[in-house]
Amino acid sequence: MKKIKGISSILGAAFLAMTLVACSESTTTEPVAVAAESTHVITETEVLEFQQSWGEGIVHIGEVFTSGGDYETAASEHINRFYGYEDMNTVLFKPTLAKEVRHRDTFESAMSYFIGGDISEDKGFAITPWTNVRWENEGVIIEGNQAVTMGVYYFTPGNGGEPVEVEYTFAYTKNNDGELKIVLHSSHLPFSATKAITEEEVLEFQQSWGEGIVHIGEVFTSGGDYEAAATEHINRFYGYDDMETVLFKPTLAKEVRHRGTFESALSYFVGGDIAEDKGFAITPWTDVRWENEGVQIEGNKAVTMGVYYFTPANGGEPVEVEYTFAFTKNNDGDLKITLHSSHLPFGN
User: Fold this and answer.
1) In angstroms, rounded to a whole number, what is the distance separating the alpha carbons of residues 300 and 198?
2) Which residues pair with 295 in a beta bridge?
């Protein structure tokens, strides 16, 4: 890690000159104020301890959430402790997973990012939850009561998965009470030219898609809002919002073979304006089992072909269906279906 101290700048020089002039023209009480100001100089140790505490704070919010405690208060305390919303005119905060509202320059918008709130894209970063935050500073620049760090931190998820790598830039200053505060926080996922898909992602995606179909049927059977369940399913798995075109040929579609819109896909899954649609997902089914003939991956695109088996809730034999799927990753790195072609086997 590089440490750089005492970097001169026009602003720093001007500030120093103003201080010297003030000292030369001051009364006997003014040097005391300048001496007090010198105690606000930031040290590298303070920066490192502050980073460690920030990470522990993120972990703590998740722990409180998991235990059913008042995680909103935990998040509020975290923001007030580490960010300068109360002390500074402006806090520049670009969270890792923010796109619709990229910059969070108010306490409320930061709160929404950490635990979810009024901003629809916010799922609650701090309540993921995480079990550890590890910092790797590329460098620390200190100039009086201001400091800047850049590097990579690693968030270990509570489900035991691999640490998530995030690039950061932070700027800190001390307030009038000598407390370190964040005035700039910019986080981004590492650059990826292709957002390459892995086979593991494809297999997990298929499993989740099948579970989603079963879930829609369960909601329908229990008298719940199965249309909302189907809407969530389509938005999660299909690229209608992200891609120019989704090619979807459902198994039991003939009058309207191809479903290139969200509405026509919803009709197929739960019934709707298309007369032939009886609601495939509300049959209902209790299980979907996949048998891939193969998985082909090229960068951020993947294709699978095979047979899946839908087990009906009435206890009948699994229904055999042949499929071809194509997937791609959107700009947020989410896997989406861009082609889905299903057919009953020849002779049926």
Assistant:
1) 9
2) 304
Tokens found for residue 293: 């003939």
Domain identity same for 176 and 236: no
Instruction: Answer for the pair 144, 42: CB distance below 8 angstroms, yes or no.
Output: yes
Both 86 and 129 in one domain: the answer is: yes
Given 159, 188, 217, the domain boundary residue is: 188
Q: What is the mean pLDDT of residues 87-93?
A: 91
SS (H, E, C) 293-323: EEEEEECCEEEEEEEEEEEECCCCCCEEEEE
Cα-Cα-Cα-Cα dihedral of 155, 156, 161, 164, to 10°?
Answer: 10
- Helix 262-270 / helix 199-221 crossing angle, nearest 10 deg: 60
Asked which of 162, 188, 214 is the last residue of a domain, the reply is: 188
* Helix (H/G/I), strand (E/B), else coil: 261: coil
Q: Which DSSP state fits 346?
A: T
Total domains, the chain: 2
pTM for the full predicted model: 0.55
Domain CATH code at residue 179 = 3.10.450.50
Both 213 and 179 in one domain: the answer is no
Confidence of residue 348 (pLDDT cuts 50, 70, 90): low
Determine which of 118-127, 194-203, 274-283, 296-305 has the lowest per-residue pLDDT on average.
194-203
191 alpha-carbon distance from chain centroid: 15
Q: Are 64 and 70 in contact (CB under 8 A)?
A: yes
- Residue 44's pLDDT is what? 97
94 pLDDT above the threshold of 50 = yes
Whether the CB-CB separation of 156 and 130 falls below 8 Å is answered with yes
* pLDDT tens, residue by residue, 48-70: 999 999 999 999 999 999 999 99
Tell me how far apart the alpha carbons of residues 28 and 23 are, in angstroms, rounded to a whole number.
9
Does the pLDDT value for residue 166 go beyond 90?
A: yes
> What is the share, in percent, of the chain residues with pLDDT greater than 90?
79
Range of the domain at 161: 2-12+32-188
20 lies in some domain: no
More confident residue, 40 or 31: 40
Q: Are residues 162 and 37 in the same domain?
A: yes
